[in-house]
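This part of the workshop introduces the protein records we will be handling. As an example, a complete record with its sequence and its structure tokens follows.
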Amino acid sequence: MKSAWIIFWMLVFSSAVFAQQHPIVKWENEVVDFGEITEGEEIEVAFAVVNEGGEPLIISKVMSTCGCTIPEWPHDPIYSGEKSKIVVKFNSTGKVGRQNKLIRVVCNVVEGYKVLRLSGQVVPKEMEN
């Protein structure tokens, strides 16, 4: 009888685990290197995403590590087979040297979030006489 209860609870637990479905997300680019720009330039890059799972992808929040990096994301669900993008604007004013900006995408994937990275070199603008 004891083994019957163990089997019963194993079946209950395993069915609960498999019942929780999440979107399967494929990022076309997790890292974008913008190359070299001059201080003061503003650039815009896109991180493309495809939902390859059976459940809608819901992006609830996108945060960056710096106020110079502003993300925009789709607020509507991304359904199975659909493609969308997160657009990030970077303002290089006051940012000279190698830049490495992290963008945290909070969504309903198993892990709960995905970290994307924007990097590149900002060279100082020439001084005017």
Remarks:
- The chain has one domain: 22-123.
